[in-house]
Amino acid sequence: MSNIDIGIGEKDREKIADGLKCLLADSYTLYLQTHNFHWNVTGRLFRELHLMFEEQYTELATAVDDIAERIRTLDVVAPGTYKAFSELSSIKEVEDVPAAEEMVRILTQGHEQVVKTCRDVLKAAQDADDESTAALVSDRMREHEKTAWMLRATSQ
């Protein structure tokens, strides 16, 4: 870490960045799943889900960049390999191509997991008076809660 003075101590920056690394890994894993499902969805809901998944992975692509840049702003190296993401993510990869309804269920669970990860990072950011990270994570949490709701609504 270099000499930066943004009002957050080194230990707090490292703790927050560790949480953000998990959030980045969860978000990137969810991005890959969503993109995969976009490519491979079939069935009567094809068009609706194909377009919905595209909106979701596009939004996630921006999110991973924002999260990685916040990690760098805290003067910590952002992870950027499949191996690192696999070790850090609490979202497990899907090996097969599930049916459309199962895709919706898997993605719903993924978004809900990201919300839980956000809550952990938010607490660390709030404890360190890191309003910038708290705002980013709060925005992410709101987006994932809304997306999970929209996915749940398609399966009713």
Automatic annotation (TrEMBL):
Similarity section: Belongs to the Dps family.
Superkingdom, taxonomy of origin: Bacteria
Stated name of the protein: DNA starvation/stationary phase protection protein
InterPro entries found in the cross-reference section: DPS_DNA-bd (IPR002177), DPS_DNA-bd_CS (IPR023188), Ferritin-like (IPR012347), Ferritin-like_SF (IPR009078), Ferritin_DPS_dom (IPR008331)
Organism in which the protein naturally occurs: Microbulbifer agarilyticus
Membrane-crossing residue ranges in chain numbering: none
GO molecular function: ferric iron binding; oxidoreductase activity, acting on metal ions
Start and end residues of each Ferritin/DPS domain: 20-153
